[in-house]
Amino acid sequence: MTADSRSLKILTLETTCDETAAAVITGSLEVLGSVVASQDALHEKFGGVVPEIASRAHLENILPVIDETLRRSKVTLNDIDAIAVANMPGLAGSLLVGLIAAKTLALTLQKPLIAVNHLQAHIYACKVAFKEEIFPCAGLIVSGGHTSLYRCDGAIDFTLLGGTIDDAAGEAFDKVAAMLGLPFPGGPSIQRAATGGNPKAFSFPRSLLHEERLAFSFSGLKTAVRYHLFGQGKMEKVLSLTEPEIADIAASFQEAAVDCLVGKSLQALTQTGLSTLCVGGGVAANSRFRQKMEAAAQEKGFRLFIAPLALCTDNAVMGAIALERYRAGLFEPLDLDVLPGLVR
Ligand code: KG4
Ligand code: ZN
Questions:
Q1: Cβ(98) – ligand 1 distance below 6 Å
Q2: Pair 162, 298 in one domain
Q3: Same structural domain, 169 and 90
Q4: What range does the domain containing 276 cover?
Q5: 90 lines ligand 1 (CB under 6 A)
Q6: Interval 60-77: pLDDT, tens
Q7: Contact indicator for 342, 88 with CB cutoff of 8 Å
Q8: Does some domain include residue 332?
Q9: Residue with CA at minimum distance from ligand 1 atom 10
Q10: Do 120 and 153 share a domain, yes or no?
Q11: What number of CA atoms fall less than 13 Å from residue 79's CA on the CB side?
Q12: Residue 51: which CATH number?
């Protein structure tokens, strides 16, 4: 394992949820090639990710995605020094497809196998994108499955500060979008619908925002939108909302969700004394979130790194965190397993 940084090349695989992704990254964090095969079209009619459909699609996609990544990277498998794979957390069936592919490559090529924690990788996307030292920092991961704050003392030294006690923020965006009859995935749909809407039209709850504990709750916000639309305790009925009505509800919901994310991140910085915040995960692609977070950073004077749009949603480039494990000699045996529920 003495490949020089510049010539070191790692193949990273990502299949934790519904994106099949691979990338080749060098020891100097240069991305030689990256491919993401989205399954959005397959899950859209169900209004959410169907785990069984996701794992089957990963099976179909994984080899073509790896081939295309190598082609774009202008390398062959023989040029690869290590195989990295996100084996935690995520959907068990989805994780298994990436893990088996990675193990097979590691075994046949006789190259080391490296485990990637998908949540840590979301934060590391900031380091890959900005090529700056980001540690120590507070890390906010805000995605379809997770909404958590971490103290990140190093790339492989994360401590959970707190997370959601019910829904993840992305899940709330997806469910509210479905209530409004907007297409999946809900985050981008809500953002689009909210354009031109009045964020103050309705006062939806900002749960836990005024408590000290570093926790999130989006279930009450989601229910408040439901009651607003359908009335308390009533059966859902098909609504015929006008575009301006949808815009106001979407903007007011988005504003409440963003206020919680920004507010709790500020509390995390104050409570830990850290002066850098890194943000990753699909919801970090939200333009209102980025705007409000950037304004807060200006006002309070902390360093802010938000992963660029292409690295917010799931991708394999953020698997570059495997380089840190490579350098620390942290390799895995071929009986490595998936850890679907791990959040630390
Ligand atoms: O990180 P990600 O791609 O997958 C998970 O690990 O969950 O995040 C997907 C989530 C979905 O809930 C999606 O609706 C949300 O990120 N999302 C957004 C936006 N783009 C994606 N939420 C709000 N605004 C967006 N622009
Ligand atoms: Zn993710």
A1: no
A2: yes
A3: no
A4: 133-309
A5: no
A6: 999 999 999 999 999 999
A7: yes
A8: no
A9: 144
A10: no
A11: 13
A12: 3.30.420.40
Query: 201, 246 in Cβ contact below 8 A?
Result: no
Residue 341 lies in a domain: no
For ligand 1, mutation pick of 14, 20, 146, 173 (most atoms within 8 Å of CB):
173
Report the distance separating Cα 23 and Cα 33, nearest Å. Answer: 5
CA of 318 to the centre of ligand 2 (A): 10
Whether 64 and 23 map to the same domain: the answer is yes
Q: How confident is the model at residue 233 (pLDDT cuts 50, 70, 90)?
A: low
Same domain? For 168 and 113 the reply is: no
CA-based torsion, 5, 281, 199, 260: positive or negative: negative
Residue 68 and residue 62: Cα distance in Å, rounded? 10
Q: Report if residue 340 sits inside a domain.
A: no
Same domain, 181 and 40: no
Which residue owns the Cα nearest ligand 1 atom 13?
187
331 contacts: CB under 8 Å, gap ≥ 6 = 82, 112, 113, 114, 325
Residue-wise pLDDT tens digits, 15-64: 999 999 999 999 999 999 999 999 988 998 887 889 999 999 999 999 99
What is the CA(90)–ligand 2 centre distance, in A?
8
In a domain, 339, yes or no: no
Q: Is the CB of 144 under 6 A from ligand 1?
A: yes
Number of domains the chain is built from: 2
* Apex 206 CA angle, 271 and 291, nearest 5: 75
Judgement on whether residues 114 and 160 belong to the same structural domain of the protein: no
Cα of 82 vs centre of ligand 1, distance in Å, is 29
The pTM (predicted TM-score) of the whole model is: 0.93
- Separate counts of helices (H) and strands (E) for the chain: 11, 10
